[in-house]
Amino acid sequence: MPKISSDFSGQTVITTFEMTPGTAQDLMDALRDAYDQFIRYQPGFIGAGLHMNDAQTRIANYSQWRDRKDFQAMLRTPEMRERNRRLSALCSRFEPVMYEVAEVF
Description:
By secondary structure, this protein is α+β, with helices and mostly antiparallel strands. 36% of the residues lie in helices and 30% in strands.
């Protein structure tokens, strides 16, 4: 489970997905499956959360990793590359961005 803390020294990744309401649930199901079956078992994975807006046009994914290299290694696996191709077909775009925790209130 992710815990937001100003002393977190790992890698935070926030990925936003844009889609139509018609594909929102399919995309959420595909993301849930990716975490349930694959991502959560990758070295360095700490936790993640999935959030969908009310209009079902955006999903935000917050994930934490031990370090940047662990996240990048997961992305480069053949399984995740294939999953990302399927995810891409369900949305107009998605963008993972690496962040560092700056402040917590």
